[in-house]
Task: structure prediction
Amino acid sequence: MIEMLEAAGFEAYYVGGCVRDSLRGLEAADIDVATSATPDEMKEVFADLRCIETGIKHGTLTVLTPDETRRPVEITTFRTDGEYKDNRHPEEVTFVRSLDEDLARRDFTINAMATDIRDELTDPFGGRQDLEDGVIRAVGNPDRRFQEDALRILRGLRFAAVLDRGGEGGEGFVIEAETEAAMFRNRRLLKNISAERIYAELKKLVTGPHGGEVIRKYVDIIGVFIPELLPMKGFEQHNPYHKYDILEHCIRAMEAAESAGFVTDYQMKLAALLHDVGKPQTFFRDEEGVGHMYGHPAVGEKKVREILNRLKADGETRDRVCFLVKYHDLVFQEDRRLLKRWMNRYTPEMLLEILHIKRADNIATGNMSQELADKFDRIEAEIHAILEEGQCFSLKDLAVDGNDIPGRPEGRRIGKILQKLLDEVIDGSLPNEKEALVARAAELVRDRTRK
Ligand code: ATP
Ligand code: MG
Result:
């Protein structure tokens, strides 16, 4: 792409995240190119390639690489941002002819570098040094930059959560003092930012290797759009099971909850972070001074639903996270029959996820015993064994269905009889074999008719 633009007499550079990532020796998530060509000039240069024009008003043309990967490359005309209103994206942009002006509109020094096709670096704000030192620093005056677009505050936290300096202990990036102070000062402007933009950054933040540290340090900023976190901070639980206040406990649960069979990891992380959000409201102390929070999962579920609706999370994420918050208190026993019932009620996948968040919850008390850890391992193994042995735990595993029930009882009655058969199969008092099940069903139908 860059070659084609240069051949047509324009300047063109890799910019932003892909330069940052390649200097760190990583493969970039997406490739951005900045060019002196205007959108119309670009269209001419790429007339023979597949182009997507969705961003054209802001100077962006997405071009698919001609090779078989068909990777989209976003090519944007050098621009400065026009008037900012309401601390959000500018309404209009101004195209300019110089790379330096374009780099100056970018958010952080580590994102404000460019390289050309010959690997020559343009770095007017010391981004390379900051990258080496692990520093997140606003380009220009941080107050002004956050007032222009307050999302940058959250982007800064996201980079602090995601970027890792590598090496022993895996230290994260630090936010430079002036930039950090301006983030706190301007945090309320995040209220003007759309839920979609906030949520996209939040998802990345919670999954970053330093997500926990960032939430711990910057909860007052994140609390602007999730105010439910604020009462959790410093809330002592006065309970012998818990070493930490509610927020610290939840952050530790989030850190402990790495993905396991979860479709997307950020859902598990969000569930762990929010699992005790119902605690402050349900807290009371008994005569001995011990703290209790009865009913907190149900209250928490309601709050989480509000939070995720407000952030415009997709329905699948919302329902999954709510489900996990609601059931995180389920008390597991090493009892095959009980586990089969729960596999039927919740599905095996969701039961494993409940077990998983419960494990994270217990690790995060700071008091988990080895016995409890071993018990979790055994229960998990048991659930897998039930699955591998092909044991019957749901109606669809039953060797009969509604058509096999003798005497043609009414539909609702059939459902009840099947359920009863399943219960008895799970209990082990009835084999999962057609003949025996039909005979037992006939008995149940008879019993009913006699009554
Ligand atoms: P990622 O690795 O997540 O893609 P990124 O830095 O590439 O991170 P993008 O959202 O892809 O982030 O943006 C590309 C570049 O555009 C950034 O590196 C930055 O230079 C600039 N940019 C993006 N959003 C903003 C913003 N809100 N304000 C200023 N510059 C921004
Ligand atoms: Mg990018």
User: Anything to note?
Assistant: Residues 16-17, 29-30, 32 surround magnesium ion (ligand 2) (CB under 6 Å). The first strand starts at residue 12 and ends at 15.
